[in-house]
Write a structure and sequence with these properties.
heterodimer, A: mainly alpha, about 75% helix, B: mainly alpha, Helix Hairpins
Chain lengths: ~325, ~120
């Protein structure tokens, strides 16, 4: 039954994707991307990837849309009609799609337990997580401990992208832009978004904190929590105006979170080395290796959450503070 | 090959079509924001392929529960890879959008052919 539902969702996904590309109004495209992300999140959930579904819903449907809309406000939302080259492109991508579809017949089927991907390290991770970390969520265990180097790299990529955006769009906006954003008071005069938003924001942030600290036991962790809390603050900024949001969480706090989060993660690794272990080997952090692992994972997840939340909010403010040049 | 076996490949076909749709937007559209939207569809297609590979028949999300006999879990590894990739994806996407905003400020347009004409 669930597979028929998945079939329906996947078909809808393809239709949405085609509609996104065909729409000439970019605003319509961006709103359709939100639907696309939500459909994708449900599909991930059906495929047993609860953590990924949570991330996709928070990031894809929340943050990405807002950043796209901010960019549209600065660049204009109408696409010029195409003149040439569409037929050639259509032929090329059709051939590509057919070649990939032809090659899929060599792939293992959906849900095949004997597929090569399930034979390598994954069973080892599933078996050793209770022994080494003694908490239930294997995804968090792999993310923060078994593949900790990987995650450190990803956090630094987020950090670098955030710094890049801030450099490109200017760290401190001109004074004039600040005054304009004070005048633009968000959706303050719209009653319904105001009431609903006020009700929702505390719960979004609370849920974010829950995902942060419950990530070892259920779906969640630093990446999801960072994105969720960022979504809550962005909703506040949309309702009350950007200046209010900056007064609540100033820019230097955001930058501190980005830098501090990445630094916290890295320094845990260095502390592990100083205490006689390998880089990011948390077992040495406490007398009991299991406690050491749990402590290390708690700290680095906090670092990830801070870095992601700070980075997404800094990026949002960098776009929102910029004035349109006509 | 029965109908049910064919259904087992349906996720991969959707992956192929989404990949093609995204690539089409990247190569044929001249609007830079549309290209970036296409790129994110392309990226989502890859995510879908990875998550499709993680599914094990009869499995659940890889969260260990006490008292369950012979539990079957889906593969946690692709999930970890994609989880981080989604967040990295939004950061790099906004880097691209920031460049588009600067291009608009310098050239007054974000249509690729007009930018090339202006150079």
């Amino acid at each position: 039954m669930i597979y028929i539902f998945a079939l329906f969702l996947l078909t809808l996904l393809v239709i949405t994707a085609i509609a996104i590309v065909r729409a000439e109004d970019l605003f319509v495209s961006v709103i359709l991307t939100t639907i696309f992300s939500l459909l994708m999140a449900i599909n991930f959930f059906i495929l047993d990837a609860a953590d990924v579904a949570l991330t996709e819903a928070a990031v894809g449907a929340g943050v990405t849309t807002v950043i796209f809309l901010c960019a549209l406000a600065l660049t204009g939302d109408q696409e010029k009609p195409q003149k040439q080259g569409q037929k050639v492109a259509l032929v090329i991508v059709s051939i590509l799609a057919l070649v990939i579809i032809y090659s899929t017949f060599d792939n293992p089927q959906l849900g095949d337990p004997d597929a090569p991907v399930h034979q390598h390290v994954a069973p080892w991770y599933l078996e050793k997580t209770p022994e080494y970390m003694d908490f239930p969520n294997v995804v968090t265990a792999i993310l923060s401990s078994f593949r900790g180097y990987d995650t450190l790299g990803e956090v630094f990529v987020v950090f670098a992208a955030c710094i890049g955006v801030l450099f490109i769009l200017g760290v401190s906006p001109p004074r004039k832009a600040m005054q304009v954003s004070v005048k633009k008071s968000g959706l303050r005069h719209h009653l319904i978004p105001q009431v609903v938003g006020r009700l929702l924001i505390p719960f979004i942030v609370l849920f974010g904190l829950y995902t942060q600290f419950h990530g070892e036991y259920g779906p969640g962790g630093g990446f999801q929590a960072g994105a969720l809390i960022a979504t809550g603050v962005i909703l506040f900024a949309l309702l009350e105006g950007e200046a209010e949001a900056l007064r609540a969480v100033p820019r230097r706090v955001l930058l501190g979170m980005v830098v501090g989060g990445a630094l916290l993660y890295g320094s845990v690794g260095v502390v592990c080395m100083l205490m006689g272990g390998a880089f990011l080997d948390y077992s040495v952090l406490a007398a009991d290796p299991v406690w050491g692992q749990q402590l290390g994972i708690l700290i680095i997840e906090a670092g990830v959450g801070m870095a992601v939340c700070g980075a997404l909010l800094s990026i949002f403010h960098a776009f929102a503070a910029r004035e349109r040049v006509s | 090959m029965t109908f049910l076996e064919l259904l087992g490949y349906f996720n991969y076909w959707v992956f192929a079509i989404l990949l093609a749709v995204g690539l089409y937007a990247v190569i044929s559209k001249t609007n830079l924001i549309k290209k970036l939207i296409g790129l994110s569809i392309f990226q989502s297609a890859v995510f879908l392929m990875y998550i499709t590979m993680d599914k094990v028949e009869g499995g659940t999300a890889p969260i260990i529960q006490a008292g369950v006999e012979n539990p079957v879990f889906s593969n946690p590894l692709p999930q970890v890879l994609i989880l981080t990739a989604i967040v990295v994806g939004v950061s790099t996407l906004s880097l691209g959008l920031a460049m588009v905003v600067r291009i608009k400020e310098c050239y007054g347009t974000i249509e690729e052919n007009e930018i090339l004409d202006a150079d």
